[in-house]
Amino acid sequence: MGVNTAYLAAIPSPPQGVWYVGPVALRAYAICIIAGIVVAVWWGNKRFVARGGRPGRVTDIAVFAVPFGIIGGRLYHVITDHQLYFGPGRNPWNALAIWNGGLGIWGAIALGAVGAWLGCRYYKVPLSAFADSVAPGIVTAQAIGRLGNWFNQELFGGPTSLPWGLEVFVRTPGGVAGAVPADGVCEFPTDYVKATPEVLCGTFQPTFLYELLWNLLVAAVIVAADRRYRLGGGRVFGLYVAGYTLGRVWIEMLRIDPANTFLGVRINVFTSVVVFLGAVVFLVLRRHAPREDPALVAGPENPRGKPTDPTAVPADEPADAAGSVAATARRAGEPDTDATDRAGSAGSAEDASGGRS
């Protein structure tokens, strides 16, 4: 009876992670990643404006940060799981197939930070204020992204009889009849669909759900800490990194998907520990950092020194030949008689029209 209750209460897996609209493939993983980015940018904009920043500036900087982050995430994944793409029987071009899943958060944050730094330099705003503004949105975006793993039926933990265990079903091309693989591995290509009749591979730890909930908890904690202590100097971002990596250690150790290891421990566990310690050191060193001056957070309206009015003529580029003569006369210390005549003509026209326009 207990086993049946656990089965009835288990979390079901979606029958597929890809839908086709004609020749176009709509992939749940990609949709979740995009949705997460939208949420992170929207929330980051609101927080940045509250700190004194200009509306839309986070969106501007995201144009730099997001592509860098996606490239960095993919590079980390391909490097740490290179056996999936290189070697006998492997297709190296699949390393570019990001739509099939595979983004390493460490590479995404590292290279995304480089892109953000470039964007902040371009718009002349403090990187620390930008990072503190977007931190809760980033970890929330990670939570949304984990839903993509649920649709793909991947990255789950070991077998379990817990009531919230994840049901994993056999998936086959086109959903034709299938059976549990002989090696017992129940992860399938993302474009496969649940076999008919359905075959249950097993019930496993829903590590995607654990990380989703943990990330939302981290977001709530760092927002509360920021409101209570008015954190600045990148400390909100530091708290995010420390909080996320703390959870990633124990969640990573529950997973059973193939991964490279060091001393019998998954590489991502080592990475989490190292990054966590680095975040703690950063927070200690920056414990007295004040919140940035809103004037600095706002930055210049036109960071490249361009005129606000696109039709305006720069002072050193007169609009016509007469203006050029007038400018030369002014530089030589001579009166600008043409300007006087034009002013007089304008005054006569205004008198004639009664001053209406």
Automatic annotation (TrEMBL):
Pathway per the UniProt entry: Protein modification; lipoprotein biosynthesis (diacylglyceryl transfer)
GO biological process, one term: lipoprotein biosynthetic process
Record key words, sorted: Cell membrane, Glycosyltransferase, Lipoprotein, Membrane, Transferase, Transmembrane, Transmembrane helix
Top-level EC class: transferase
Source domain of life: Bacteria
Subcellular location: Cell membrane
Name the UniProt record assigns to this protein: Phosphatidylglycerol--prolipoprotein diacylglyceryl transferase
EC number: 2.5.1.145
Main localization category: membrane
GO cellular component labels: plasma membrane
Function: Catalyzes the transfer of the diacylglyceryl group from phosphatidylglycerol to the sulfhydryl group of the N-terminal cysteine of a prolipoprotein, the first step in the formation of mature lipoproteins.
UniProt-recorded Gene Ontology molecular function terms: phosphatidylglycerol-prolipoprotein diacylglyceryl transferase activity
Binding site for a 1,2-diacyl-sn-glycero-3-phospho-(1'-sn-glycerol): R146
Annotated Low complexity bias: 320-330, 342-357
InterPro entries: Lgt
Membrane topology value: Multi-pass membrane protein
Annotated segments matching region Disordered: 294-357
Family named by the database record: Belongs to the Lgt family.
Residue stretches spanning the membrane: 24-45, 57-76, 96-118, 232-251, 263-285
Organism whose genome encodes this protein: Nakamurella flava
